[in-house]
């Protein structure tokens, strides 16, 4: 699959060398990213969601990775903004959606796959059709697909976002509000949109065993979500103390490096053969071929590249 090259900007070329990004990686050309799909340089990694009560794997979040033939791994924090600026995120996002659905359809059990939606993609036409097409082509039951939206996704055109989410949920696909608590009007979104799941941002989860403020806020967000009929997932869980606290308030799911870093598709199938995680030995994160994981700053930037839809 080739990403169509948009017309060059006045005074520029399509083979612009991008400046070093926030991770100070070596420079790459836009054409390198455009051809990444053809060259087989893109892949999906998966980070699990774990049932807080039982430790069983309930699903995986798909994370896009780029391994440049010459430069090696390129951070999502570097290539995602480039893809958005140069009109490549649509075709790239379609590949992510199709690939995630196809791979998830081969998993044993009823685990879901969660794919992120970027602001760029929600604004473009065709998102609903691409979701429906990916489900039909892969045979993945709609309830096993979840789309994650951050609060920033819905800022520009609230009415259009509400309509798009409504149609997607009508397919049977679940929709989650990701990174909850980081936007300027978090509670306002809960008034206007209908979500199936709320993911509490890692900035609140980390340190809840030491910060009274974090703990009070997490409990409040959890109670609000449950009161509105949403399931709750806690992101960025890294300590046993956090697990105990979150389990104590009835949090549904946990996600974080305590359980596993992102792993490749082959490792997912092996993990699902024995879906109870051994946190003490970190067996899941080490014995099953983990993908080189980003730092926390990089991980959040990478979510934008899991956009759905296309060029319209």
TrEMBL record:
Region of interest (Disordered), ranges: 1-25
InterPro entries per the UniProt record, alphabetical: Cyclic-di-GMP_PDE-like, EAL_dom, EAL_sf
Matching PROSITE patterns: EAL
One Pfam family matching this protein: EAL
GO molecular function: cyclic-guanylate-specific phosphodiesterase activity
Basic and acidic residues: compositionally biased ranges: 16-25
Residue span, EAL domain: 26-276
PANTHER family from the UniProt entry: CYCLIC DI-GMP PHOSPHODIESTERASE PDEF, OXYGEN SENSOR PROTEIN DOSP
Record's protein name: EAL domain-containing protein
């Amino acid at each position: 699959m080739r990403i169509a090259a948009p017309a060059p900007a006045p005074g520029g070329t399509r083979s612009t060398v991008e400046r070093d990004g926030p991770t100070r990686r070596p420079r790459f050309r836009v054409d390198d990213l455009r051809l990444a799909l053809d060259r087989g340089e893109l892949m999906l990694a998966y980070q699990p969601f774990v049932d807080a009560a039982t430790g069983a794997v309930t699903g995986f979040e798909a994370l896009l990775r780029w391994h440049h033939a010459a430069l090696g791994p390129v951070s999502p924090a570097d290539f995602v903004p480039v893809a958005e600026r140069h009109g490549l995120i649509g075709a790239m996002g379609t590949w992510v959606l199709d690939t995630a659905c196809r791979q998830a359809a081969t998993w044993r059990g009823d685990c879901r796959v969660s794919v992120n939606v970027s602001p760029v993609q929600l604004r473009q036409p065709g998102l609903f059709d691409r979701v429906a097409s990916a489900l039909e082509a892969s045979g993945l039951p709609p309830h096993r697909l979840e789309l994650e939206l951050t609060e920033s996704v819905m800022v520009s055109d609230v009415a259009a976002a509400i309509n798009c989410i409504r149609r997607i949920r009508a397919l049977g696909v679940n929709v989650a509000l990701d990174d909850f608590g980081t936007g300027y009007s978090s509670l306002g979104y809960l008034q206007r949109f209908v979500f199936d799941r709320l993911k509490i941002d890692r900035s609140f989860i980390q340190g809840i065993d030491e910060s009274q403020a974090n703990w009070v806020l997490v409990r409040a967000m959890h109670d609000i979500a449950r009161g509105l009929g949403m399931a709750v997932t806690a992101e960025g869980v890294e300590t046993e103390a956090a697990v105990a606290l979150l389990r104590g308030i009835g949090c549904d799911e946990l996600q974080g490096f305590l359980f596993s870093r992102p792993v490749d598709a082959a490792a997912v199938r092996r993990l699902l053969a024995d879906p109870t995680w051994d946190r003490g030995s970190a067996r899941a994160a080490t014995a099953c071929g983990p993908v080189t994981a980003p730092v926390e700053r990089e991980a959040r930037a990478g979510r934008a590249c899991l956009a759905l839809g296309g060029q319209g």
